[in-house]
Design goal:
Blueprint lengths: L6 H7 L11 E6 L3 E7 L19 H18 L6 E13 L8 E12 L3 E10 L2 E14 H4 L1
Antiparallel strand pairs: 1-2, 2-4, 3-6, 4-5, 5-6
C-alpha cells in the first residue's frame, strides 16, 4: 500500500518554507528503511534567474539539499511518536551526473544505511529524472527533540 504525504503533511514535518522547501510530495516510504519523494522543477524557481539565464540548470547544491530534505523526512518518520527535527550534519561522496532543467520531475530516493545510538542516522540518496541518476550522495542527520531547539 502506497504511503503518500502531501505538501500539508510535509509542512507539518519540516521546518523549511519557501523558497527553501524542495520536496513537493512523498510518493511512498517504508518506516526505517527508504523514501521516494518528488520535486517538480519549474521555470518559476527563483534560482533560475541567475543559474543560468537563457540556459536554466538546477544547481547541484539544491539537488543535494532536496535529497537531504527527503532523507530528513525519512529519518524523522522513524520516530513518529516524538516531536523531532532532523539536523543535517554531513554530506559525502556527492556526484552530479546529468543536468536537471525546468520541466523535469526530480525523484528523490533515500535509504537508511546506518543508525547509531538511535539519534544519528546515515542515509544514501539518489536523485533521478526519467529513471536516470542525476545526483547522489551520503548524508548524516542528528535527530533532536523540537523542544530542545527553541
Amino acid at each position: 500500500m502506497s504511503k503518500v504525504i502531501d505538501i500539508k503533511g510535509i509542512l507539518n514535518r519540516m521546518p523549511h518554507r519557501y523558497p527553501f522547501l524542495l520536496v513537493d510530495r512523498v510518493l511512498d516510504y517504508e518506516l526505517g528503511k527508504w523514501i521516494k519523494a518528488l520535486k517538480n522543477v519549474t521555470i518559476n524557481e527563483p534560482f533560475f534567474q541567475g543559474h543560468f539565464p537563457g540556459e536554466p540548470v538546477m544547481p547541484g547544491v539544491l539537488q543535494i539539499e532536496a535529497l537531504a530534505q527527503a532523507g530528513g523526512i525519512l529519518a524523522c518518520a522513524t520516530h513518529e511518536d516524538r516531536d523531532i527535527i532532523a539536523f543535517f550534519m554531513t554530506v559525502n561522496n556527492c556526484k552530479f551526473r546529468k543536468m536537471v532543467v525546468p520541466g523535469d520531475q526530480l525523484i528523490l530516493n533515500a535509504e537508511i544505511t546506518k543508525v547509531m545510538r538511535g539519534s544519528i542516522i546515515q542515509v544514501h540518496g539518489k536523485g533521478t529524472v526519467d529513471d536516470k541518476v542525476v545526483s547522489e550522495g551520503d548524508f548524516m542527520f542528528s535527530i533532536v527533540d523540537r523542544a530542545d531547539v527553541k
